[in-house]
Specification:
190 residues; mainly alpha; Cd81 Antigen, Extracellular Domain, Chain: A; 76% helix; signal; Tetraspanin_EC2_sf; membrane; transmembrane helix; Tetraspanin_animals
Length: 190
């Protein structure tokens, strides 16, 4: 239950505060970003509900609540496996979508350098530690962070691919660990 409440709080913090609030409040934010945040909050609510079934079922020794706990854990385990498979299969699509989002913001900035997109593109450059999408000459008019290293700064599209490649393995490892915990909780509930 506490982990579920923490996930809900983290999802709401990402939506309304923190580093990602500027991305979430921007009109150019993709619908995938909002869906991801709402799925995160929904997953936290599901975790809290499942934790309630398990806690109350164990405390009251209720077979009905423990059965509901087991059924929920079985569904969650199947969803984790499915999400993991789709994450590794759809890696190329995720990279292309993230690059397209950056290219759209980049193009909007080039059309109107003084607009609200100026702050958004700066946050992308700061988060990815890069600047621009093509060559060094195009970086001169862009809002780039001062402390980035110039060889790395030449192409944000490459940096987006590197970040997704590097972090997808971490997501897979965490997913396997959570799936293992889910299986052990299922066995204990039985």
């Amino acid at each position: 239950q506490l982990a579920g409440l923490a996930v809900i709080a983290f999802g709401l913090w990402l939506r309304f505060g923190g580093v990602m609030a500027d991305f979430a409040s921007d009109k150019k934010s993709p619908e995938y970003f909002f869906m991801g945040l709402y799925v995160l909050v929904g997953a936290g609510a599901l975790m809290t509900t499942v934790g309630f079934f398990g806690c109350c079922g164990a405390a009251r020794e209720s077979q009905c609540l423990l059965g509901a706990f087991f059924a929920c854990l079985l569904v969650i385990f199947a969803a984790e496996v499915t999400a993991g498979v789709f994450a590794f299969i759809g890696k190329k699509v995720a990279i292309q979508e993230a690059q397209k989002i950056y290219e759209d913001i980049y193009d909007d900035y080039m059309k109107n350098p003084g607009g609200k997109v100026n702050r958004t593109i700066y946050h992308y450059h700061l988060a990815l530690q890069c600047c621009g999408k093509d060559n060094m000459e195009q970086q001169m008019g862009l809002p780039c962070p001062e402390n980035i290293q110039m060889p790395k700064a030449s192409n944000c599209l490459v940096e987006i691919q590197n970040v997704i490649d590097a972090n997808l393995h971490l997501v897979g490892i965490v997913g396997i660990a959570i799936a293992g915990i889910t299986v052990s909780k299922s066995m204990f509930s039985l």
